[in-house]
Write a structure and sequence with these properties.
By secondary structure, the protein is α/β, with parallel strands linked by helices. The protein is built from 17 helices and 13 strands. The strands form 3 sheets. Strands 7, 8, 9, 10, 11 and 13 form a 6-stranded mixed β-sheet that branches. Strands 2-1-3-12-6 form a 5-stranded mixed β-sheet. A two-stranded antiparallel sheet has the order 4-5. About 3% of the residues have low confidence.
């Protein structure tokens, strides 16, 4: 073979090698460009307990590591600002892809901007309790997934009560008398949130209902008696007027530190107490009644996971589906301290956890709040009246009259 033919064969061989490498490189580039970009979703919430915040971080982290294309980021918005911020984001068209909203507020927000139907994403929807479904269903569609249930409850430091020879009060008059005996130095006998937020209304409704009062009959003798009790608690010194400036988390912190003996807050805070003060001696029970002839009653609540419409709603729906899985919901609710909205998980909780069993027993005497479009307006009017009663500078007759007028105008505006 002459040199010319030899070089020709080597030339052809090298050209073939280059073509193969080029094809492989081209395929690799095509493969790389076909990889989907990571979609980042934002989840807004207002849960201020450390246990709740940690639980949300853990479930989003688990979801983020379960796949490669979606990353969910958590953003905390204080409860007193949450409604305003979410409403403004809807008006500006700059909503988070996901949000936890209070069950009583879903209808209001959904009327502003319809949430995405999540019916198909909820695992075992037929197993969900009617109380949980009621807060989410609009025109036959699930506009959110129930994410647990809680109730307002009275927490009492039994160690301090026993040292003073006192018992857990059964009526509001007994609570005031007991709280007065326990108030000394830098310690108050009782506290409940009264800041302008849904948490405050949630704690106040058992007081209103316990006296036989109703929002629809706010000028009745029973309703006025409930508001008067707020004034008496503050004026007597049994409760600090500073509750007008404290969120529920602040009040629970004071309870754990022994600066308040009795608090009326959500049952979910027992999880925080057990984690941060495992040796604390306390009981959680029904809020007091108006008098011995009235039944004790509390309020049932919970959060709803919603998806807002937009370019990333399909990715957000995948997160809802993930959270609805039995194993994921069990982990989340165990950390938050909520009762499950679905029957199979709930029965396991009651059988295995004495604290949640106690919560369930308290919830048997619970009432639902309104699920109406105008509830946030009612909520603000109630907290304004609560604050005025606690400060005590305006005559109660004027406070109640102004509250009734606000509620009346709101109904007439529908």
């Amino acid at each position: 073979m002459n040199k010319r033919n030899l070089w020709r064969k080597w030339y052809i061989f090298l050209i073939g090698i280059c073509l193969v490498v080029g094809l492989l490189t081209g395929c690799q580039k095509e493969k790389e460009t076909s990889v989907k970009p990571v979609q980042t979703l934002t989840l807004w919430h207002y849960l201020d307990s450390s246990a709740s915040k940690q639980a949300l971080l853990e479930i989003t982290d688990t979801f983020n590591h379960s796949q490669e294309n979606i990353q969910v980021e958590i953003q905390y918005v204080p409860d007193e600002d949450f409604k305003k911020h979410l409403a403004l984001s809807m008006a500006d068209g700059d909503m988070p892809e996901l949000a936890l909203v209070d069950s009583s507020d879903l209808n209001y927000f959904n009327a502003m901007q319809s949430f995405v139907n999540v019916t198909e994403q909820i695992e075992n929807l037929d197993d969900y309790l009617p109380e949980a479904i009621a807060s989410c269903k609009v025109d036959g569609q699930m506009k959110g997934m129930p994410l647990g249930m809680n109730c307002a409850a009275l927490f009492c430091n039994t160690e301090i009560l026993e040292e003073a020879g006192l018992q857990v009060p059964k009526t509001w008059d007994e609570l005031q008398e007991t709280a007065l005996k326990l108030t000394k130095d830098n310690r108050y006998g009782f506290a409940m949130p009264a800041l302008r937020s849904e948490e405050s209304v949630f704690s106040f409704l058992p007081l209103l209902w316990g006296y036989g009062g109703e929002i629809a009959e706010i000028e009745s003798e029973e309703s006025q008696a409930a508001f008067l009790k707020l004034r008496e608690l503050s004026e007597s010194g049994a409760m600090s007027p500073q509750v007008n400036n404290l969120i529920t988390g602040d009040i629970v912190r004071q309870f754990m530190e022994g600066n308040v003996v009795m608090v009326l807050v959500t049952s979910a805070f027992q999880q925080t107490i057990q984690k941060e003060k495992p040796n604390m001696k306390y009981v959680m029970t029904l809020p007091p009644s108006g008098n011995e002839n009235k039944e004790c009653v509390t309020a049932i609540g919970g959060e709803v996971l919603v998806v807002t419409p937009g370019e990333k709603q399909d990715e957000a729906l995948k997160f809802v589906k993930f959270v609805s899985e039995k194993c994921q919901m069990e982990k989340l609710l165990e950390q938050i301290g909520y009762l499950a909205p679905r029957e199979d998980i709930l029965q396991e909780q009651i059988a295995e956890n004495e604290d949640l069993k106690n919560t369930w027993q308290i919830m048997q005497q619970a009432r639902l709040r309104e699920f109406s479009v105008d509830w946030p307006y009612v909520s603000v009017a109630l907290t304004d009246a609560m604050e005025e009663e606690i400060v005590g500078e305006i005559p109660q007759s004027v406070i109640i009259s102004n509250l009734a007028e606000k509620l009346r105008k709101n109904r007439e505006a529908k």
